[in-house]
Specification:
mainly beta, AttH-like fold, 14-stranded antiparallel sheet, ten-stranded antiparallel sheet, 1 helix, about 50% strand, AttH_dom
Length: about 375
């Protein structure tokens, strides 16, 4: 889930939002990413909150991912994504080469998307800004906040956050309340992606955020309620030499449990051994999952009319030890973001059984590497 934007960051000259709605996505360049001078995720660490919700400039790349499924009282369903990426252009001990107030070593990128299920409409926008002059940034104390111009998430109290974001076509004004606290993914928060030392990230989640507020889709405003998910990762790493992308699942089930699993794919499309995840119980207990614990079968594919990429579009997921069997389907098939790199990220619904009892849920799925390898992208 860590995506680089070094080429665009180096060329940024202002703070205007960029919207990519054209049918032809920009090329996904393979760029060298120097990592000397940055820390790497090597071993488990002790986390301190809210400090560790904020930025970690000693690491090269960081992101905050917010996704969720929302409904109106009449049953009109929406999915949303708001993502902030931070990229260090120079190691922490380095200073900008010029004294201008606009100079900075940190650049932020944001992705905002809204899925309107009733209208079968998917809208998205990308924007960039430098950290200088308060145009973008993040903080951990005294309360967490991350922002990119008028897109922001700010902590209101120990468990509540306000999410604000808008474009000319969509808008979010939401209150998120954390129900389970911080979930440390992987080995006490160290999520390994490959065999090389540092081929890992520090990975924190809030897997059950109850949501209420207002959204805007086109000219229409709606009152909504729902459930959301937050992922925060920071790292100085890269995909393994044979890895080209990943499939990431974040599912919230109506029995109160949450499931996260990511498949790291090699250049033949096969899962690599470091694919992993977790099952989070209703009371917040984390049960780590490896490839031997999860069986995933692709049931359907969708071909993008925009990029030509072929994505998996429906899945059958089984956790035999949990007597859990789930069918995961997108609310609409076209939830492809054609931004600086092309990927699919969208709202999904879940139906299945647990120990022969029906179970339902919602969630989000992210698919990368289908419109071009992610090698060199982070």
């Amino acid at each position: 889930m860590m995506l680089s934007f070094l080429a665009l960051a180096l060329s940024i000259t202002g703070c205007q939002p960029r919207s990519f709605l054209s049918p032809t996505p920009p090329p996904q360049a393979d760029l060298p990413l120097p990592q000397a001078g940055f820390e790497k995720a090597i071993q488990p660490r002790i986390f301190h909150f809210p400090l560790d919700q904020g930025p970690h400039p000693n690491f090269q790349t960081e992101w905050w991912y917010y996704t969720g499924n929302l409904e109106t009282p009449e049953g009109h369903h929406f999915g949303f994504q708001l993502t902030f990426f931070r990229r260090s252009l120079l190691p922490p001990q380095s200073k900008p080469q010029r004294s201008s107030a606009w100079a900075t070593t940190q650049v932020y990128m944001g992705h905002l998307a809204l899925t309107d299920v009733s209208e079968k409409r998917f809208r998205f926008q990308e924007r960039f800004s430098r950290e200088a002059l308060g145009l973008a940034g993040a903080q951990g104390e005294p309360r967490f906040g991350v922002w990119l111009e008028d897109w922001s998430v700010v902590q209101l109290d120990e468990h509540r956050y306000q999410l604000l974001a808008r474009t000319s076509e969509i808008g979010l004004d939401l209150i998120l309340q954390d129900q389970k606290g911080f979930i440390l993914q992987g080995d006490q928060g160290l999520s390994r992606k490959g065999e090389e030392p540092g081929n890992a990230s520090y990975y924190i989640s809030q897997t059950r955020l109850t949501i209420s507020g207002q959204i805007r889709s086109g000219k229409q405003a709606y009152s909504v309620q729902g459930v959301g998910w937050m992922d925060h990762e920071f790292s100085t790493s890269a995909l393994g030499k044979d890895q080209v992308g990943w499939d990431w699942f974040a599912l919230q089930l109506d029995d109160g449990s949450d499931l996260m699993f990511f498949i790291l794919r090699d250049n033949q499309g096969n899962p690599t051994p470091y694919s992993s995840g977790s099952l989070i119980t209703p009371d917040g207990e984390v049960q780590p999952l490896g490839m031997k614990d999860v069986q995933i079968e692709v049931l359907h594919h969708w071909t993008s009319p925009h990029s030509g990429a072929i994505y998996p579009s429906q899945w059958y997921i089984r956790l035999p030890s949990q007597e859990l069997a789930l069918r995961v389907s997108p609310y609409i098939e076209d939830q492809e973001l054609r931004v600086s790199f092309t990927y699919w990220e969208g709202a999904v619904k879940v139906e299945g059984f647990r120990a022969s009892m029906p179970i339902r849920g919602v969630g989000y799925v992210e698919l990368t590497g289908y419109a071009g390898s992610m090698q060199g992208q982070f």
